[in-house]
Amino acid sequence: SEKKYEIFLINTKEDLKEEDIALIKEFWLNKKIEFGILLDEEGEVAKLYNIGILPTIIFLDKNLVVKRVYPGLISKQQTLMFQYINYLLDCREKESPKKEEKEKNNCEGPCEPPPGY
Predict the structure, then answer these.
(1) 3-state class of 17 per DSSP?
(2) With a threshold of 0.70, does the pTM exceed it?
(3) What is the DSSP letter of 1?
(4) Is residue 105 within 8 Å of 111, Cβ to Cβ?
(5) Contact at 8 Å (CB) between 46 and 12?
(6) Do 114 and 83 touch, CB atoms closer than 8 A?
(7) Taking the CA of residue 69 as centre, how many other CA atoms within 13 Å lie in the half-sphere pointing to its CB?
(8) Residue 30: predicted pLDDT
(9) What sign does the CA torsion over 106, 65, 76, 55 have?
(10) Complete DSSP assignment for 33-92
(11) Sorted alphabetically, which Gene3D superfamilies does this protein's record hold (predicted)?
(12) Which of 1, 16, 100, 116 is most deeply buried (CB count within 10 A of its CB)?
């Protein structure tokens, strides 16, 4: 079956703090999600997506169009980001909805987005 999404962690030359790495690992290990890790040594990805603050988390659709941007790891943004990730992951686990429901929710399953989406 075709993958609905792929996850990549892209690092620049700047070092991640140990607590950031632990938080990322804990979240993704609990979700049992596979992801790739890429190194953006020349900063090309950062320039392409106009990233000025590290870390920045960007959600792209299958056409590489930006859907959500979360600059930095401010706790409110971090909470919203994890809500959005959980929403997307919940969508993949639900049964396939009717076409009208799928279009209404912009989702692959019968799920509701978190507040503000």
Answers:
(1) coil
(2) no
(3) -
(4) yes
(5) yes
(6) yes
(7) 11
(8) 72
(9) positive
(10) ---EEEE-TT-HHHHHTT--SSSEEEEE-TT--EEEEEES--HHHHHHHHHHHHHHHHHH
(11) Glutaredoxin
(12) 16
Identity (one letter) of the amino acid at 41? E
Tokens for 41, please give them: 């040594």
- In whole angstroms, give the CA distance from residue 87 to residue 107: 9
The tokens 């000025």 sit on which residue? 52
- Residue 14 has a pLDDT of 62
Amino acid letter, 43: G
Q: Which residues of the chain have pLDDT under 50?
A: 95-96, 98, 102, 105, 108-110
Q: What's the fold here for domain 8-105?
A: Glutaredoxin (3.40.30)
Contact status, residue 69 vs residue 57, Cβ threshold 8 Å? yes
End-to-end CA distance of the chain: 28
Assign 23 to helix, strand or coil: helix
* DSSP state, residue 96: P
For the four alpha carbons of 86, 91, 95 and 100, in that order, the dihedral sign comes to positive
